[in-house]
């Protein structure tokens, strides 16, 4: 297994990171231009979201050719140059493999549409009448998960957009094709892979209606998923690469198995349970304040559970599908830098490999769009329509989008206070929030106490203290609703991490074993410890050693 426990991964949303050629879209040479910045931050790997040939209905998660570069992002030479330049700085690249589905523009799907039986078997086609889809399953982006093709008299399955057709992994030819894709990128010098929604690849043998849900129970962590991942990874010879699987609506037991080294599946997994604690009744489109006791409980369950099963978590708050954490779990208005730092410490010191999503290290915020015309994301646009159909007013639907839309994280990286946030010389494809004038890389680098500097310090600590990457974890204070407290320990070292999610002061008894320890890192000047008690200020984090 690759060495990944003391590493930190930085996620780049290619379309929004840096535009090198003035077309308003981020591109591959733009990433190369900014490698020194990432080197200064101290990250070890870059996960880049897809830049492969694509109609870009889902910004590249609809791949039309896995081994060609979409011209809007650059050329194969640009990719090779990026790999070389990153390598020279000791940074490895992880590419994003979207293997659950392809774009309907992919030549395999086009052949299937043209009537080629061999390629129809690459996808999930079912005969049927035009008025009755094979099952009542719903697409994750809204509406039915099936689309009818009149000239074939068949339906095809798409768990995501109608232009993203699910592949048939039960067909060994499909699995061979995908191994070839991995071999191709391996030969180019890529050092790791992220696998998109990889726990959805194995569909059930029989397709049936879901009387009580949207169908996910039938295909999530499906019947052959472990076998297929193991086969993919071992046959393509990437057991020693850093690999991370995105696991949708998964379980702890499955994640232990996906990431336990003995199983030879993946290095680590993303799960999303902690990012649903503000979904009312589990509905992403129904607003509710974050349920902090639930958040704490999920952290404890997953951290201690993965430890017990010798699995490994990818730890994260943000990615290109999630609103910005500082707007969501912090207080963007009154305590932006404090909450950004607290949130960082909270996950970077847990047991797992931390992922930083571009701009998180600046404390970037949600987009705060006020009209539907500002949104671009296919899921957001679908749900805006669905919310109106469900009887919400335009203002209510916009309020929901402003909190839940994936575009909140997809706004351009804020490099400077110059026009277009220094991202592009042209108008960006998605507008940056107004606050780029204050929140940007140039300002962060000039400030010794910035969120950026705090991230840098956390990354350095991970390299210096083996207890962070290799130690055990135990959660404390289960009943303190708004404070996450845990202990990291090994035979020679011990840390106490206390993170307040409250906007006011909270006083706690200090754990006995923490007495006499001193502040290793925190987001206020000195910890307020008196007589065995500690008072945490708004969004304070204190790490004692
Ligand atoms: C994953 C990606 C998301 C994409 C979806 C379909 O959840 O992170 O951006 O839309 O898969 O590929």
Name some characteristics of this structure.
single chain, 545 residues, eight-stranded parallel β-sheet, 18 helices, 19% strand, five-stranded antiparallel β-sheet, alpha/beta, 25 strands, binds alpha-D-glucopyranose
Largest sheet descriptor: 8 strands, parallel
Supply the number of helical segments: 18
Sheet with most strands: strand arrangement: 13-12-11-5-2-1-17-16
- Cα distance, first to last residue? 30 Å
Shape: globular
Number of strands: 25
Question: What are the segments in which pLDDT stays under 50 over at least 5 consecutive residues?
Answer: none
Strand content: 15-25%
What fraction, in percent, of the residue positions are helical? 25-40%
- Cα gyration radius (Å): 23 Å
**Rounded mean pLDDT score:** 97
Structural class: alpha/beta
Distinct small-molecule ligands in the complex: alpha-D-glucopyranose
Tell me what you see in this structure.
The chain is α/β, with parallel strands linked by helices. A hairpin with a 2-residue loop joins strand 14 (279-280) and strand 15 (283-287). It is globular. The mean pLDDT is 97. Bound molecules: alpha-D-glucopyranose.
């Amino acid at each position: 297994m690759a060495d990944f426990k003391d590493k930190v991964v930085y996620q780049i949303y290619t379309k929004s990171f840096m535009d090198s050629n003035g077309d308003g879209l981020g591109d591959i040479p733009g990433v190369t231009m900014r490698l020194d910045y990432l080197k200064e931050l101290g990250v070890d790997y870059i996960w880049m979201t897809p830049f492969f040939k694509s109609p870009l209905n889902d910004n590249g998660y609809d791949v039309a050719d896995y081994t060609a570069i979409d011209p809007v992002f650059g050329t194969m030479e640009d990719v090779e140059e990026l790999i070389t330049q990153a390598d020279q700085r000791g940074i490895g690249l992880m590419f994003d493999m979207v293997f659950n589905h392809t774009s309907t523009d992919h030549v395999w799907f086009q052949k299937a549409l043209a009537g080629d039986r061999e390629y129809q078997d690459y996808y999930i086609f079912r005969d049927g009448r035009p008025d009755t889809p094979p099952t009542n399953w719903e697409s994750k982006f809204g509406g039915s998960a099936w689309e009818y093709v009149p000239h074939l008299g068949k339906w095809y399955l798409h768990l995501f957009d109608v232009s993203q057709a699910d592949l048939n992994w039960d067909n060994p030819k499909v699995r061979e094709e995908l191994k070839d894709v991995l071999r191709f990128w391996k030969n180019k010098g890529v050092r790791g892979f992220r696998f998109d929604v990889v726990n959805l690849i194995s569909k059930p043998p029989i397709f049936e209606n879901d009387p009580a849900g949207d169908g996910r129970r039938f295909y999530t962590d499906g019947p052959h998923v472990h076998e297929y991942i193991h086969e993919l990874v071992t046959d393509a010879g990437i057991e020693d690469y850093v690999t991370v699987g995105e696991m949708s609506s998964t379980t702890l037991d499955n994640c232990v198995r996906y990431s336990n080294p003995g199983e030879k599946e993946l290095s680590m997994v993303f799960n999303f349970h902690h990012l649903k604690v503000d979904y009312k009744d589990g509905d992403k489109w129904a607003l509710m304040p974050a349920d902090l006791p639930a958040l704490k409980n999920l952290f404890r369950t997953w951290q201690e559970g993965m430890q017990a099963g010798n699995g490994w978590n990818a730890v994260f708050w943000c990615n290109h599908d999630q609103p910005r954490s500082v707007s969501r779990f912090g207080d963007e208005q009154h305590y932006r830098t404090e909450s950004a730092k607290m949130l960082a410490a909270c996950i970077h010191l847990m047991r797992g490999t931390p992922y930083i999503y571009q701009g998180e290290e600046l404390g970037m915020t949600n987009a705060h769009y006020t009209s539907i015309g500002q949104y671009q994301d296919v899921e957001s646009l679908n749900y805006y329509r669905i919310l109106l159909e469900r009887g919400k007013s335009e203002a209510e639907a916009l309020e929901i989008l402003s909190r839940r839309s994936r575009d909140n994280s997809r706004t351009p990286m804020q490099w400077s206070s110059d026009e277009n946030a220094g991202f592009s010389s042209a108008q960006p494809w998605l507008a940056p929030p107004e606050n780029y004038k204050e929140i940007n890389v140039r300002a962060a680098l000039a400030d010794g106490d910035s969120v950026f500097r705090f991230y840098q310090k956390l990354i350095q600590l991970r390299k210096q203290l083996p207890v962070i990457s290799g130690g055990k974890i135990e959660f404390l204070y289960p009943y303190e609703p708004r404070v996450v407290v845990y202990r990291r320990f090994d035979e020679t070292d011990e840390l106490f991490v206390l993170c307040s999610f409250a906007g006011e002061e909270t006083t706690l008894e200090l754990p006995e074993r923490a007495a006499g320890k001193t502040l290793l890192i925190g987001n206020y000047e000195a910890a307020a410890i008196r007589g065995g008690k500690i008072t945490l200020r708004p969004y304070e984090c204190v790490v004692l050693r």
